[in-house]
Amino acid sequence: MHHNQSNVTAQPERRHGDIRYFQAISQNQPIVDRHHSLEQEIAQAGEHKRSTTFRHLFTDPATFFIEPAFFCEAPDTVTIDEGTFFNHNCALLGYQNICIGKGVFIGPNVIISSGPIADYTTSSAPVIIEDHAWIGANCLLLPGARIGAAAIIGANSAVAQQVPANSRFYNAPVFDPGLSSHA
């Protein structure tokens, strides 16, 4: 059986379900090129050199630690203060400011976005994480999120609002062993 191919116009790469991502990347190609160059250097570096090289991505040379894999869409819009720790597989997305305070712990697989992401939001706004906050694994911080000092964000949470200092926030389903069933 022979299948005819229809005439399909090639579409730019889509990421996060949004064509605006491609447009933003096109407008910021020098930043993207700088990131890819450093990314190659990081991949070939040892653990100590890797941490130093990550710091060169950002304009502020504070001492912080980043585990691989790490992606930052617009390093020039990001401020990371002393003693911050990024666990594995984190991403900083968007072209609005992302400000991360002192001694912040960011768990694995966290996405912090100051720009639109698929169906979650169509707006852009800065994201602020104040000193000594903890962001649990698999969290999504959306444009406009502000995490107060020493606040704790529970694993698998999506945050698009202000979380007060010294508070706990979670909006993911919480596991209750008393409710589990065995087949």
From TrEMBL:
GO cellular component: cytosol
Lineage top rank: taxon: Bacteria
Keywords: Transferase
UniProt GO MF annotations: O-acyltransferase activity
Transferase recorded as keyword: yes
Annotated family: Belongs to the transferase hexapeptide repeat family.
Designated name of the protein: Acetyltransferase
Species of provenance: Salinimonas iocasae
